[in-house]
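Appendix B, Record 12. Input sequence as logged:
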Amino acid sequence: MKKIGFIAVMVFMGGCIQPGITFIIPEGYKGEVTIFYNQDKGQPEKYEGGRRLLVIPPTGVLLTRFQIEHGNSRNYDYYYISKDGKRKPLRIYSPDEMKNDTVMAKNNYGIFYNGTTGRYGALIENLPYEWFIVSNFKGLDKISSKESTEAYKKRMKEAVGYDFISSPSAN
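Logged structural output:
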């Protein structure tokens, strides 16, 4: 009887484990990345080694058919990919590291705000998304500049097909 109980618990726990996600980012890309989930016209679901594979386009905006999953942000891997297909891992910077002057002085590129999720748009659009930034510490301020933000909003509009984010100047 104990054996059956143990097996039942293992099957239940196995059903709760979500696959990891591997993000492939074009080498040299710097800036915001947004993945819009549940998109009929999005990138088909792909897996690699049992993990979800999300290939980010040069625009930094990906539409995917995958459903958004919450709770597996600790199982993310990020890579730059060169034109010849070689991958270089990108480090995930924690909020604590973002406050560390020694780390901040380094010029290494990595991932900031890993696992940020939400929904864009009103009730009609209701676009579930995931967002992060690819940068070094020195580049974070440039990414949040008005010019950079407006250019990124334009790329999101082109990817989704309509403007669903109001401009700060429109308010």
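Confidence is low (pLDDT under 50) at residues 5-15, 167-171.
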